[in-house]
Protein 1
Amino acid sequence: MSPQDSKRYRNVKVDYLARVEGEGALYLRIDKDKVEEVELRIFEPPRFFEAFLQGRRWTEAPDITARICGICPIAYQSSAISAMESIAGVTVTEPIRALRRLMYCGEWIESHILHMAMLHAPDFLGYEDAIQMAQHHPDVVKNALRLKKLGNDIMTFLGGREIHPINMRVGGFYSVPEKRDLEHFIPELEWGLEATRELAHLLAGFDYPDFERDYEYVAMRHPEEYPMWQGRIVSNRGLDIDWPEFFDHIEERHMPQSTALHSVIKERGAYMVGPIARYNLNHDKLSSDARALAKEAGLGASCANPFQSILVRGIETFYAIEEALRLITNYEKPDHAYIEAEPKAGTGYGCSEAPRGICFHRYSIDDDGIITGARIAPPTAQNQATMEEDLVDLVPLFANNTDEELTWKCEQAVRNYDPCISCSVHFLKLHVDRC
Amino acid sequence: MHTPRKPKLAVWKFASCDGCQLSLLDCEDELLAVANTVSIAYFPEATRAVVDGPYDISLVEGSISTGEDAERIQMIRDESNLLITIGACATSGGIQGLRNFANVDQYISTVYAHPEYIHTLRNVSPISQHVFVDYEVRGCPINKYHLVEVLAAHLAGRRPNIPSYSVCVECKRRGTSCVMVAHGTPCMGPVTQAGCGAICPAYNRGCYGCYGPSEEPNTQALSAWWTKLGVEDADIARSYRSYNALSGVFRREGSRYAKKAAAGATNEERPQ
């Protein structure tokens, strides 16, 4: 780069993005107030899950794919189980369906609170981390830790442990709980509702950058409920598909100037998955109390400001706690913990709403139940193109800020998506020419 | 009055799922106490603040799978007084270690459209293959209380109290009846290190070995028992080749049964 160039361009460079899960870096080259180049670099080494799944037993997929991500193992387990059950032609009983949804509520509560209170809120309040924040807002951090523990406790009780739980299987669960044991959660969940309401009010008071974009939102949609692990895949621009059609519409591009397989909708390009997409496409499926809380927090029926994802996570957490209460109240212990499922040659698809957005799986197995092909589209890979586009539009708004302020703002914009870079199946290393 | 300096803690990540370092944030009841006792000097998953080394304690998650990472771990060792590996990836290579039994070029072309963009080592290796490791915390994922125990023991200048016996001991202590004896469910508990609390048998399933081999495990006897229960050779091989596929005894037994399974398949194909 020539000396003139260095005067002309501003570089925003973050060598190691903090408060995200996994290893990523950010690089922007800015000419006055225009972004010339933007790269969200992922240097998480590839781990080749889709390759070593081949030759494994179909029943192993839920436990193996959980290891893609320690933050959202339930999402991977659910999608893998759905795919295998669709091949075997198994439909689970209502109590099993409810217990899976309850597991999912636990994961949403844990993951959303972790992100809201410990990873994202410090940006809005000007702290480097939640521990610093705890010195001035001790009750906020303590309540958040207690809420997070509630989510983890639900997963641990139903799944044996919170990270890589061991109890979910193709056809159901290895072991199902007694109703009276689940009812122990009721008082803490009731406390959690109020604590989340308070948290949402606090988040509503944050100073949100005035930033909106015209996104294509993609999420699941179920006729009766806010989506977790069942429903069609829809968008606000006419996408309305069943799982087997996913790769007819979504393309994963492996580009030399990209650090990941960017997912795009073939006809239209980048799209957004995650809390805002779910909320905008399923606002009518939230409970009336959750909708009322959203209104109190200043959210309309849809939201186009990615910085407000933290607020939407708050509403979803409130909903997940309400839903957990409802599921526990209505639970009847099933006679059988699982339905026996026999393998047969075929291809199956699974999708579920990880806290960060849809997590899509496709598997082929043979008659003996040996996996012959696997393909997985994790949510963060699907959001990556949108994250980069956000940065291009965001920088001009903060062009007058100091380098440090601008850098922090860009980091915050990436954290809007709660990116989980460890979902590394599709991520790869890239060499970048740094200015 | 002289206040002792807080020990500086750093958390490093290599190829992994992030779950083991998340365990530290999952210590909801202990987190603020830990933060009062040690200074969190480098922990990108939790903070954007960075304090330069050297560090008193480094926690290392993940396995080595790229040339850059092989260099980075040397730098981390140089900067760390105590280096503790956390989790199956760091202590034994983890699930991604399965590539060592396959052709990595084939793996790359299975997953990626442009293999030429991918730079990775042929083999995955645990941290101890590269640098001296002071202490290993096992498990996929680790038990978060083991992590707290290791940190507390270090601060108190004593040995950490973490079991090296098998999962069977934990089942007995928990009062879980043996799933293998009572239900004929294949279980890796007899050869797997305790520490998880024997959760799988307590939930009616066999242990799948995510804590790796226990002290002096008799894998051959266990495999013979599994064969009696009707488990095929290929499935015995798969069970050893999972989250700790590269640990010594599991690796040997996995390979022994993979060979047996391959020989069996050839025999079947041979015309009578």
Protein 2
Amino acid sequence: MQPAAVYTRDRCITGIHGLDEILRGGIPYGSTVLASGTCGSGKTTLAMEFLVRGAIAGEACAHFTATEPSVKLLENIRQFEFFDMNMVDTGLINVFDMDVLYSWLGLEKSSFDLDDVHALIKAIVDIVNTIGVTRLVIDSVTTLCYKIKSEQLIRDFLFTLGKKLSTLGCTTILISEITSATENAHWSSFGVEEAIADGIVVMGDVERMGHLLRFLQVVKMRGTSHSRAKHAIELTPIGVMLTPMLKWGAQGDTKSRWGA
Amino acid sequence: MNKQYTFKEEDEEFFGGVGSFGVPKFDLEMHGGVPRGFTMVSFTDTGSGSELFGKQFTSPAEESENTLYVSTNEGRQEIIRVFTKYGWPLDINVRTIGEEYNSEVLEKELLASRFRLEGFRLEDIQRLAQTRFVDEKHHDYLTEVTNEIMSLGPYFRVVIDNLDFFLQREDNTKVVAMVRMLQAHAQMMRGLVLINISNEGLNPTIKQELSSIADMVLSFKVRTIGTDFETSMIVSKFRNAPENLKILVFRVTPAEGITPETVERIS
């Protein structure tokens, strides 16, 4: 009797140097991945490169920016060689300001109720469906969820959004702002995002001999085996570079909750 | 009040101590007109002619650039039509808050409802992706109108028809504070302010407060007599001239607009 063929899910190749190797080929299609990180850990750059690599492959991409105006985001990102403003101009990467979306939906208010949350989900799903978005980034889901006062509603929002986007075959990165990436830290601001996400990628800083090094660690990724080792991130003009940190061996690694 | 304004002697002579109501017979009944610096509040019944009286009050327009008619319900075209019909000056300042509200707030709300109900079309998404800034225009009509009136110079003439729009949308204490500011400004600049407010649904406390701020309180009433309507105007407060308190029945004529009846009815 022949052994059953091993089923592997189709992957969304991130195109980010080192990340696809960590994920054994990429993010499983349609996954919702929480990219949690402290400020300055490279979340936005990583997410934008994820879109750029998709756009280069001819995929339609969307970026919803809630933490900074899109004008500022684009000005900051265009200094990277991997980014080409033509991708935005030609509609391969569609950058949406959440403030504008709120205004268009009549959501210029301090807190959202159930109807508002549904309207927001419908709008995002509409956009994904209409222009055939296969790669989506929400930067950040933390800022967005601040307007949703109930934990249950946040859970519903993320679950429903994730489910609908997955059905549409859209691979999503939800950026989450956390204040600390140390062992006692949570991977999300509200505690519910991490339970709902298909994958969690944590980004933070570690001190090495007086230098603050950025690191990335894949904590969880449903549908694929992956490395759980800490990897150093370098934000270079040509893109994000990941290299394993293990062999650097340093003080404090034994304390790390995410050490391999 | 600390602030004082010095008026020119020739201006004082030109404008005089009283201004016309725009209704000659009413001027006579009020012993010449309305004293300069007065703020008048009129509580009105629906269909009692107060809107027309408001327009007629602007018709003397001693200085058209210093005369402002604020309408919260009518459109500019309708106002022009009425002014033209009666031959009242068309060069006064007119602010149509109702129209502004429709185009700036209601249309946006309607569009938001459509987006929420029907979703985005491809062209909406393309436009959304190209829109980088939110229209930050904040619609504080109460502050805008107050500032506009406060910027008017001496001997100004203002009509607000009517205050309901603000009372229904703003904190009522803010609206009362606005009337208080206008009253102080009118007193200082010897301006004339007429504010219409509907009787229906008006909070008695607010009515009481507005009545006490006003220098003159009018009520516009309408009732049926047989198959006819009878419209009347009651002057229930006239600061420092109680002899002016009156009940005047009036009719609307094509030539004069609102005209008090001087013939006393027997029945």
Protein 3
Amino acid sequence: MSGTTRPASAESADRLKEQLTAAVAAAGDAYRHTSRLIRVLTVLGQPSSPTELVEQTLVVLSQVYAADVTATARLVAGRLQLTGACGIPEDDPAYTEGWPLAGAAEAAVTTGRAVARTGAALDPATDVPPSLTGLAPRSAVWVPVGEPGAMDELLIMFRADDAGFPPTDLPVLGSVASRLRLAVEARRRSASAETLAAFGHRLTSRLDLTSLLDEAARLLPMLVDAEDAGVMTVRDGTASLCAVTRPVDPPGDFTAVPAEKMWGWASLVSGEPYAGVHQEFGVHGSVLGVPVMRDGSPAAVLYAFRRDRTPFRRDAIESAKIFGNYVGAAMTNAELYLALGESENSLRLITDAISDLIAVVDDTGRFVYASPSHERELALPPGRLLGTAVAGLAHPDDRPAVVAALADPAHAPKVEYRLRTGRDTWVWVESALRPMPADDTVVLSSRVIDERRRLEDELRQRATHDPLTGLANRALTADRLDGALTRASAGDHVGLLFCDLDKFKEVNDRLGHEAGDELLVQAADRLRGCVRREDLLARFGGDEFVILLDGITDLTDVLEIGDRVVRALETPFSLLGERVEISVSVGGVLGVRGQANATTMLRDADAAMYAAKNAGRGRVEVFDDDASHRSLDRLELRSDLNQAVARGELIVHYQPIVELSTNRITGFEALCRWQHPRRGLIQPDDFIPLAEETGAIIGIGEWVLREACRQLVEWQRMPGGQQLRISVNLSAVQLQQPDAANRTLDAITATGVRPSDVWLEITEHSSIRADVTEFATTLRDAGVHFALDDFGISYSSLSHLKRLPVEILKIDRSFVAGLPATDTDRGIVRAVLAIADSLGLAVVAEGIETAEQCADLLTLNCRQGQGFLFAQPMPPDEATALLVTGLPAPVAGVFVSAA
Amino acid sequence: MRKLPVGSGTSSLDDATAAGTAAAHTAMAGLNGADPGLVIVYASIRYDLTELLAAVRAVTGDTPLVGATTAGQFSDGEFLPPGTSVSVLVLGAGVYRFATASVGGISADTMTAGHDLARQAVDAAGPEPTPHGAVLVLADGMAGDMQGLLTGIYRVTGAAVPVVGGAAGDDRTFSGSFVLHDDKVIADGAVAVWIGSDRPLHVVSGHGWQAHGLPMLVTRVEGQVVHEIDGRPAAELYNEAIRSGYAERKVPEGARGDWFTKHSFGLIEPDGTQLIRGGFLDDEGQVRTFTPLPEYCAVQIVSANPDDLLDISEQVVADALSDLDDAAVMLTFSCIARMDMFTEREDEEAVKLQKAAGPVSTFGFYTYGEFARTTGVAGYHNATITALAL
């Protein structure tokens, strides 16, 4: 075996190695080509100005093609004008003089195809421009760009070595070159658009013709890349020079030039720009003329001049044309402004006549104009207001809002504030602000909104206060108690006194309701004397008063204040000239901030009060924690309640809902009662809160709903009963059950009733959670309707309307009680009806007790109601009987404007 | 053409004034009485550089001076490791036309800085042009994109003028480097010498790294952080291709523990060769390169061993001197990454260079990046040795 013969396996290994090397090299080439293209495309996609874009692209091309020189050139007047270069020193004359169009460059432009030359094929005389003789390039490529048949740009690359540009590179380079051109054009267009927009603003801010045309002459060269500009106005076939950026040389009279002698008039008169080269009047180079067309003929001509013969770019000409339109619009503005000055007097007459308060305020917030209505409405003569700060007239509390709104009227277009009138009174005013950017002023359009604010305040007060005594109500107390308990940082404690007048019912029965109310008012006054400024005195309804002691040391303090209360009410009252003696039973508890809870404190104070009452009236009983737990009475009731449904102790009473104009019964409201084996009939107000606390309400609520639906099915079988419907109250606790929607719907459908005959009433102040939407949607889809109970009591009423698909509002009995005599109540009822009307909702008035209330409701266009006037809540058999007989017809003559 | 008078001197004295004086005296003596035309100073950052310059200029007078801080130096076969040492080279006047310039604050915009630097240097050379030229650049390589600096220079000088030089070092302390111009010590700066010549000047370079594995496309880069390669997390790929198997490698004294210089990225050039870009994993586990990689560039993993790297030094000398028979000095710039890979053979390069150069003086320093622009605008390198013979 010869020593030089290599084993076949070694040869094959070598061959494999070679193949591998070749494959890696091929992959390298492929990656390099890909990389080239992506890098060029990346640079084309980056944000930059047109000039930067060209420069960056040429740098990248130099890197990825190892080209010593990369350049772009435009064909201008038979020469190549450099538009960008990488590798040619910046002081090379090529940048100003360009290169001759010869050799391969000429061939590329003429044929429209890329030309690559290497080594001997490269002719130093014609292919290599003078700038590059020192470099002695050995290979080069010329890539033409432009419209087919009109190539006017070249991408050129030179290399000092003769590696050459293979034919496979040419299509890529062609694509790169045309993409570069497109990208540059796009950048230039967007730059022009930005410049045009900015210039448009500058033009419109010129409101007199002379300065407008001066500005136009100054801006035009920047827009079209020219050195100078001039403007000639044209009127009746005669032109006159009215603005120039450089004096005409030699000077002459250019005030009455026949229009047809102007450069490019033939194009300009038809609305088209003109571009040419001229030598006269000190102009030696390219001229661009743009007509400013108004009413179909040039009202002016804008000229731009360049000292060299480089023609204006097509996109520059387009921009100039748009600029001409802007100038035209600005000229119209300037003329309108002039006319406006003349018509200002008539405008003043108009603003003087309107009743809204119109004012113009300068950028320091002072009146520069005030309409005469200021004197009529606010007793503030306009003359006195001029130069006065608006904020100076505003209430100190509202001043920051006014100042903020004036500082940024675009973001605070409306502001409400109290304003001091010339009669030295405060009135609520709403001002709409409208900025006038032209002169940095703000136009205020204001009106007095006292009445609306008063109603709103009244509603707010109603929501949180007892109307009889003006004391806080249960809602406000609970809120304040919650707040006091969460202030864990304070070192002291919170006390609560629950006060119940003894023998109040007797006084009421003996002397009448009015005397009873008077007693409550007097008692409230005396209690006010017992509390400190930081405490809160509340009436929970009936004869129950509650005192929240915010900041006490211990239970002894609670006891002490409780004693003070007892003593304060010991002195006899004078009612209807009669001496009346009453006493008060007081229960007190102490709550530790951060630990105690409002509901429990109220419950325990209540229990302590009962303990005091049981111990012999006119006493104070305070519960410490242990004692609280002993409030067995309540606990017992609670535990009884859990069994009530099972033991069949609950019953449903029904109160008819009637059509007020006819007394026809349209449906019933189902109301739950508890027939306690030992305590007798318990009212819902006494056990529903307990049931809500314990959760028993869920079972009770469902039972009531089923029972009511079942009853409705029975009634609907009676003659004429098909149209009846049933209203059932739903507790907020029920709503919060995870499967509330299905459980409720099951309860309804199980009875066979039509869901659309069922109205679920939700108490407005029940804490409706934001996420009841699913519940409401499911039930509404099934046909069930929703009513909002006790509407008007809580200030946040309208927000509930958004969350629930409510179709009926029930006006709370407290408002109805004030009808027709009390203006505020009437105003609120009217407001509720207006809200309902605007939202397309029906209204049911609750607690109608007198024929006068009923008549007044009809006058206010309220159609439906319920109350003792028609019937009390009654057991089902009585309700059935009432359905058979019907209610007595309304007394003729009472329902005056029922229609 | 008359031969360029050259003198060089070094000192490792601890005192700046003493070291500067000693090195400058030796260098001046080498001129044999010829007038000095340019002084080049390479020094450790451990010196009080202002004092050092004052000491050198007390000897060399107003002769234009340029210089840089280094990560080790070499002069006429002598290797001066990172640590107190200074090398001074004095070139005689009259053979080449030298004009110097410097700029500060280059990190704000390296391209504008490069343009201004070249403009000032070219203008300082006077209105009468020389037929040929080259630019010597020394810059703070940690002050941003050094290719930008070259692009700026290219705008002024064009394709016909090669650029050579190096990025200043700081003895691997990464505390910041300086360039020197006359009596000024400049941070975040660059200094340049326009070298006007009657004959063409050639910048040469080489690296000795070998590519292996398939090419890959860098698909996402932010500055010096490489996020993705071939669409995959770069750190994952780096760990697979570069780090694995090198965990126990001895780390050169003073170098970063994560400095895996045996492997680097090779940026595939238009002619198929590789431009070396050193990479490392930073504290956050991100792949970083000393010089930003262009997004969507094609790379290959490259590796090298000391013998390949030392062989290339000889090749570079041969290329630099190939068409010159009267060269006097070879200005050489070798990368710190190379020295790291020589490990215990770190003094061999200086000896090899001088041996290959024969009678021609060799003078240079270990850099944080090399400038060698010869073809097109690209010309910033890592892990490379580059030279210009005068």
